Amino acid sequence: MRETEGSRIVASFITPDLFRFLKTLARNNNREWFEKHKQSYIDDVRDPLCAFVEVIGPKLRSVHPDVVADSRPNGGSLFRIHRDTRFSKDKTPYKTHAALRFRCGPKDSAAPGFYLGLEPGAVFAACGIWHPQNQTLQLLRNAIDADQPGWRRASKVGLDDVEMYKRMPGGFDADHPLEFDLRRKSFTASVGFTEKQACAGAFPAKFIQTCRRFKPLVNFLDGAVR
Fold first, then answer.
1. What is the Cα–Cα distance from 40 to 33, expressed in whole angstroms?
2. In angstroms, what CA-CA distances link 130 with 12, 37, 123?
3. How far apart, in Å, do the first and last CA atoms of the chain sit?
4. Right CATH number for 2-225 from 3.30.930.20, 3.30.565.10, 3.40.50.300, 3.30.300.30?
5. 127-173 pLDDT, tens per residue?
6. CA–CA separation, 170 vs 190, rounded Å?
7. Which residues 6+ apart lie within 8 Å of 198 measured at CB?
8. What's the pLDDT tens digit per position in 146-157?
């Protein structure tokens, strides 16, 4: 169901069936079960989330002009349900959560982005750059050091508590006023929601509103890595 109230999106894309499917998948995480219930995945998870992406794409581009909202079921904003088990001791074949990522730049870039994670009992919207590679990490540190007032303004959105490097990175004063942020391994912010909120018709608009709140942080990170 979809309608609009002025320019506000009012739609039901995420439903209890999505969480029900993921919860059942967690108890039956094998290929035989998934193949028997693949249509339920398509109907309750994949297609509704692709529709969500299609509808909010234009609104997200008003938050950041380079945001990529790709509604294709494969290779787009929706993460694959299949796990990469090549280097993992956990050989279960499927993820028991669903996720969307909206990059603020090309696929092969280090650009920040917006994220939506959906798991039974855990829904959250997030933004930023998670575990950047060394070259990108150095660019971020340099930008924070060079524009400390700008970083303080950007980080007012409320940064996540993340894993940190034990030592101060080389090239920066040991008593740097932003030591904590220079030792970060990730630069993200997030907001949690309930399943009920995620299933409400107003959730797409609430997600956009959250992304707008994150805009100062995304813009700072984007400027640092370009």
1. 11
2. 29, 33, 18
3. 39
4. 3.30.930.20
5. 999 999 999 999 999 999 999 999 999 999 999 999 999 999 999 99
6. 29
7. 14, 118, 123
8. 999 999 999 999
